[in-house]
Amino acid sequence: MKIRSATIADYDSLVALDTIAAGDPERRDHIRAWIETGCCYVAETDKSVGAYGVLAYHFFGNGFIEMVMVGAQFRRQGLGMALVEHFKSICATPKIFTSTNQSNRQMQQLLSGAGFHTSGYIDNLDENDPEIVFCFRAA
């Protein structure tokens, strides 16, 4: 497995593996913007892009993992964890945050396994599915 910065040549692969992008032009625009601003990374296996993630610094000046998306056929292979660990290793701030819906148990398990701790909740983003905020503090 290899993690590298995404390039515009990866755009179609990222859209194809993203479960929301097919029906959401706004998500496709986000993917293009993440690539163009250099905050998007891909995880490759055997030269295939299997996952992507986004690390930004818009959350009160801290690192924030804005997205981790693993293609359906690449799940349970460690790509999501590899991206999160990569972000922890390159984050320019001592704290890194992320969030996921309360219904997303797989992401919660991944974050727990990566050493993240619950930091709070945000209601009213998605109806009846609070957002859980997580934090990791570098040693």
Automatic annotation (TrEMBL):
Source species = Ensifer canadensis
Give this protein's Gene Ontology molecular function annotations: acyltransferase activity, transferring groups other than amino-acyl groups
Name of the protein this chain belongs to: GNAT family N-acetyltransferase
**Which InterPro entries does the UniProt entry name for this protein?**
Acyl_CoA_acyltransferase, GNAT_dom
Q: Which Gene3D superfamilies match?
A: 3.40.630.30
| One Pfam family per UniProt | Acetyltransf_1
Identify the residues that the record assigns to the N-acetyltransferase domain, covering every copy: 1-139
Stored PROSITE patterns: GNAT
